[in-house]
Specification:
Blueprint lengths: L16 H15 L5 H6 L3 H16 L18 H9 L9
């Protein structure tokens, strides 16, 4: 059996696109979040899935509209925190005094 690591890709683990969609559907149900089919198709590794689900759950807990960040699919592992901050910013809101 192959070792499963956060940076493992679904391809490396023998998980096809239908299995990946089913896994994400189960996670949506478990955590009461929504992931569009478009964003689900962009997830290629366990780390992307972990980061995305974590961000959606954290946004939901903070009362922020949970939206899968566009930048996540292209982000290297470990960039979830920066992407979460992007979702928290309000357009037109300035952080300068």
């Amino acid at each position: 059996m192959e070792t499963v690591r956060p940076d493992s890709t679904f391809e490396e683990l023998g998980i096809d696109s239908l299995d990946r969609i089913n896994i994400l559907f189960e996670l949506e149900t478990e955590f009461e979040i929504e992931i569009s089919d478009e964003h689900a198709a962009k997830v290629t590794s366990l780390q992307q899935m972990i980061d995305g689900i974590t961000m959606l759950v954290e946004a939901k807990e903070k009362g922020i509209e949970p939206v899968w960040p566009e930048s996540l699919a292209a982000s290297p592992a470990g960039q979830a925190e920066a992407a979460l901050k992007e979702t928290e910013e309000t357009p037109g809101e300035s952080t300068e005094d």
